[in-house]
Amino acid sequence: MKKIIAISLMALSMQAFADKGWIATDVEVTAVTNTNSNGQSFSVVVTDGDGNYPCEDTTISFPLGAAGEEGGDEGIHNRAFSLAITALTAGKRVSIYSYSDNSICHAAAHIKLLK
């Protein structure tokens, strides 16, 4: 029984690790909102993806709870918002990462500004 539990826990932890990843890469930011559903999050609309990631050509949300190792890191969240605004105003492309689940578009935390 202990062996089954250990294998199950290992499989679950591997699945959790596999769920982290890029949700959009090398996309254009076409809109930025200061909140999503009036919560502690902001959203970006991205377009011009290559179709290799699940959240290209859609709206991506950055909830405060996804920012930082423990969630709720306002500094990280504010920097992500600032980079999103910079990408929009400067016409730069971005890549966006989720540390919790790379199959949904509403748990982003990391945004990389591209040249």
Number of strands: 5
Compute the number of helices. 2
Largest sheet: 5 strands, antiparallel
Low-pLDDT windows of residues? 13-18
Overall mean pLDDT stands at 89
Series of secondary-structure elements, N-terminal to C-terminal:
HEEEHEE
C-alpha-based Rg, rounded: 16 Å
Strand content: 25-35%
| Shape verdict | globular
Descriptive account of the structure:
By secondary structure, this protein is of the alpha+beta class. Helix content is 30%, strand content 30%. The chain contains 2 helices and 5 strands, in the order αβββαββ. It has a 5-stranded antiparallel β-sheet, covered by helices on one side. The longest helix is centred in the N-terminal third of the chain and has 17 residues, at 2-18. The protein starts with a helix and ends with a strand. Mean pLDDT is 89; it is low at 13-18.
Kindly summarize this structure in a few lines.
With 115 residues, the chain is of the alpha+beta class. It is 30% helix and 30% strand. The protein is built from 2 helices and 5 strands.
Keywords:
30% strand, globular, alpha+beta, 2 helices, single chain, 115 residues
SSE layout and pairing:
Layout: H1 2-18, E1 21-33, E2 41-47, E3 59-63, H2 74-90, E4 93-98, E5 110-113
Antiparallel strand pairs: 1-2, 1-4, 2-3, 4-5
